[in-house]
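Question (not urgent): is this output format expected?
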Amino acid sequence: PELPRLTLTIEGVRRAVSGCDIGPRDLSPEAASGNPGAFPPRVRLLNGAHDLVGIAHLKPSGLLHPVVVLM
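Got this back:
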């Protein structure tokens, strides 16, 4: 099955590659508008060029945590 995609801001990419949690402020405006506060359990994280940055899973806190980072 295909994982949903979320595009990150530049700051969101920086946070993801550093292993920091990802929240709504780290998403591009397009991704944030299509995702009103509820993340799927596992997602692909993309940069602004739509390149794969990594895979993240949903934490009980409601934030996403990168579990695989490719950059």
